[in-house]
Amino acid sequence: MKFDTLPETCLVDETIVIRVLDLQPGARVSLKLWSRLDQITLLSTANFTADSNGVVDLGSHAPDSGSYDGVDAMGLFWSRAPVDGEIAKGFESVSRDPLTATLVAEAKDGGTSIAHSIRRVYLGPGVVSREVRENGLVGKMFEPAQPGPHRAVLVVGGSNGGLAWSQEMAALLASHGYAALALAYFAAEGLPPTLDRIPLEYFETALAWLSAQTSVAADCIGVVGVSRGGELALLLGATYPKIRAVVAYVPSGILWPAYPESGYGAWTLNGHEIPYAQTLSYEQWDQALAAGEARGDSFDWYFIPLRDASYADRAAIRVEKINGPVLMITGIDDKLWPSTELTAFAVERFKRQSFRHRVEHLAYAGAGHSIAWPNGPTTMLKSRHPVSGEEMDMGGTPEGTARARQDSWPKMLAFLGSALADA
């Protein structure tokens, strides 16, 4: 048996065709995909029966059993999950590069096995990157190989801080033809340690810096953010008309306090805290439960204060001021915060204010908080927050989140392309 032609290197968001050829019809084959994440070994498996032509094709055949169900060309990639002990020892002979996944096919009759390693990267051919440490900014700039000027994107991460999410998103966007600035705004050298009273003027400086780059079309700049960075993306769009398109992953149309909570707001403008809403305190939550005013397994600690329309309006982002189209992407089963419901505040405000630009809200059943580019592992639903140390539950199911990523990613790229083309 052999693999059909497979790349040695490709972008992480690229769908690849995995086919095993030259099998006996009806032969049983086990496919495994190994990779490494930090000190964790990840593994997915899928068992197949060859068709009448002696072929196993992941793009058209469902596995008999394994880590995922149904036909899914990239099922082995998103269904990778941590393994240890004796199982992990099988990884010792393959690459420990975190970007490299090793595909192994084993004949179930005890015959041969074959392997192929694929390095899945964020930087496409010719994309260049450079550190940005000018005008007080902390970021990383990514530019396509082709000469500009290019449509550009400011990319901001969430409450994890630093550049962990934003530099990967920015690299992928540059690989799709955008000039992209990944910008840290806390939890990086020279910046505040936490998400606490971050001045919007910092982002205004970043927009000015981005506009001044010779590779950038200054009138075609969008913003992409996730989680608290999704909240920020909506806020920046509502504050700075230079931004002509907004993409907000699992965001909120309501502004929230500093994180971890400090008694202050997350954002300031002109030296003043921007009004924000607060969740119920632990004491208030216990009282609400005792009085039957809150449901135990719910996000009512967010929603009870927002039942006061004037209070909610005071903390709402003035999204109607955004100077271009808006795309918001959420998981209906988000357990980190109720992003779908909090995004609904923005959707309703757009309608109420007769917003003149296009608005889309993609809400995915079965998906949790970690929606982004496709094909990464979606099985690790719980983790510890790197800033606060709190236990986090991303929510959703691995398959539901994977499907949301697969569906939303090409739609996001198409939206960004059309939105900035019209700018």
3D architecture notes:
This protein is an alpha/beta fold and 423 residues long. It has 2 domains: 2-121, Immunoglobulin-like (Sandwich), CATH 2.60.40.2240; 128-421, Rossmann fold. 24% of the residues lie in helices and 28% in strands. The protein has helices at 75-78, 85-88, 166-175, 200-211, 228-239, 282-290, 300-306, 309-315, 339-352, 398-421; strands at residues 2-3, 9-11, 19-21, 28-37, 40-49, 56-57, 65-66, 81-83, 100-107, 113-121, 128-132, 138-143, 150-156, 179-184, 198-199, 216-226, 243-249, 267-269, 272-273, 326-331, 359-364, 382-384, 391-393. The strands form 5 sheets. It has an 8-stranded mixed beta sheet, sandwiched between helices. Strands 2, 4, 5, 7, 8, 9 and 10 form a 7-stranded mixed beta sheet that branches. A 3-stranded antiparallel beta sheet has the order 1-3-6, with no helix packed on it. Helix 5 links the parallel strand 16 (216-226) and strand 17. The longest helix has 24 residues, at 398-421. The protein is globular and about 70 Å long. The mean pLDDT is 95. InterPro entries: AB_hydrolase_fold, Acyl-CoA_thioEstase_long-chain, BAAT_C, Thio_Ohase/aa_AcTrfase, Thio_Ohase/BAAT_N.
